[in-house]
């Protein structure tokens, strides 16, 4: 089914506060879509039900992260007047949709999902994969389709989820009726932003690895982290040629730096290419590059910190935002569920032909 509206939906699992990787990989993108005003509806979901699929024994962690993630959203500049922020588990239609869509997906198809495969390995589930976890791509399809979202801003690792959703939509529309919308992923344009490495050089910034710069870190914490970042281990003396690939300091710069930063903080160079060329030739110390990166990160994080302080002092405002957003989400998702049930012909009490069945037998 085609739709002329631009409906955007995305979400995050609340398993901890959000970090710089989330910012460059996704949050920044969301804010710029919001500020472009080039959309009709935008939903941002705190995916607590999905987070529970591999945290069944740790509900406290999820519960405690909901408020943190909401604060992160608001502090990066997502505006509750323009976007609808809501809590997944409160929207029961999503669970119902998941149950119906599950009939359209085979076990082997889920087994082939590269993201699920990878996550199963990472979590050492082996033979003990929770069914809920194994089937979360189906629930993610419910999240997306319940809002008729056609644009889903996500990181690259989520592409298999979008593909799975598209398949479910096609099956549903073919078997029943054209009710659902096929979504498309919307990836960040910068390669570096697709996956920000950890400050220790590990390929992924992740809370469990302790290598993150959090959006809520203080200025002092950020300074400590940036100045201790892993760089090119073979770049020992200043005059040594340096490697800018696999060097997180440069990956971060790639994801964050803009030309105005050079004018403001390091006007010996006009752009990152010039700085990189010099570093590769040799003659620039790591500390100098790190100081520059610190300025760039601080320029990004300072306004985020300020907005966070505002909302931290007004928790009831945050809760109202979540409550209103969730109410709106419930209304929209219920409407889709109704259409889905109608298409599946399981809307018995609203279906005049079904209500007449008994009479025909008279
Ligand atoms: N799987 C996403 C993540 O781990 C979170 C998520 C849940 C999501 N439902 C979604 C993202 C729907 C986009 C659309 O980050």
Written account of the structure:
This protein has helices at residues 20-36, 48-52, 59-76, 92-101, 107-111, 114-122, 131-134, 136-146, 159-175, 191-194, 219-227, 248-256, 259-265, 272-281, 286-312, 315-343, 352-360; strands spanning 7-12, 41-46, 84-87, 151-153, 184-186. α12 (248-256) packs across α15. The model has no long low-confidence stretch (mean pLDDT 94). It contains 17 helices and five strands. α9 (159-175) links the parallel β4 and β5. Strands 1-2-3 form a three-stranded parallel beta sheet. It has a two-stranded parallel sheet with strand order 4-5. The two termini are 40 Å apart. The chain has two domains: 7-195 and 315-360, Rossmann fold; 219-311, Tyrosyl-Transfer RNA Synthetase (Orthogonal Bundle), CATH 1.10.240.10. With 362 residues, it is mainly α. Bound molecules: tryptophan. The site of tryptophan has 14 residues, from β1 and α8.
Brief digest:
The chain has about 350 residues and is mainly alpha-helical.
């Amino acid at each position: 089914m085609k739709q002329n509206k631009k409906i955007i939906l995305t979400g995050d699992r609340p398993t901890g506060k959000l970090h710089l990787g989330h910012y460059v990989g996704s949050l920044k993108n969301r804010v710029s879509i919001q500020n472009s005003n080039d959309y009709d509806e935008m939903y941002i979901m705190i995916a607590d039900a999905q987070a529970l699929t591999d945290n069944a024994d740790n509900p406290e962690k999820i519960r405690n992260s909901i408020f943190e993630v909401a604060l992160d959203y608001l502090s990066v500049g997502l505006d509750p007047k323009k976007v609808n922020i809501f809590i997944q588990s409160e929207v029961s239609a999503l669970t119902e949709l998941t149950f119906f869509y599950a009939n359209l997906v085979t076990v082997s198809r889920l087994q082939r999902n590269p993201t699920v495969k990878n996550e199963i390995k990472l979590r050492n589930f082996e033979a003990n994969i929770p069914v809920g976890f194994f089937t979360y791509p189906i629930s993610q399809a419910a999240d997306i389709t319940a809002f008729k979202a056609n644009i889903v801003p996500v990181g690259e690792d989520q592409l298999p989820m979008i593909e799975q959703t598209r398949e479910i939509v096609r099956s549903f529309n073919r078997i029943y009726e054209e009710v659902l919308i096929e979504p498309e992923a919307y990836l960040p344009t910068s390669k570096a932003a697709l996956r920000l490495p950890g400050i220790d050089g590990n390929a992924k910034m992740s809370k469990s690895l302790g290598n993150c710069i959090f959006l809520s870190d203080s200025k002092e914490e950020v300074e400590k982290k940036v100045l201790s970042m892993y760089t090119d281990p073979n770049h020992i003396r200043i005059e040594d040629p340096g490697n800018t690939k696999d060097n997180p300091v440069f990956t971060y710069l790639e994801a964050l730096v803009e030309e105005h930063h050079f004018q403001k903080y390091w006007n010996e160079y006009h752009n990152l290419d010039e700085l990189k060329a010099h570093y590769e030739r040799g003659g620039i110390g790591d500390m100098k590059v790190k100081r520059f990166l610190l300025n760039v990160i601080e320029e990004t994080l300072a306004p985020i910190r300020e907005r966070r302080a505002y909302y931290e002092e007004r928790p009831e405002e945050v809760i109202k935002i979540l409550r209103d957003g969730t109410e709106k989400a419930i209304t929209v998702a219920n409407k889709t569920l109704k259409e889905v049930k109608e298409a599946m012909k399981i809307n018995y009490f609203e279906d005049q032909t079904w209500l007449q069945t008994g009479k025909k037998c008279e």
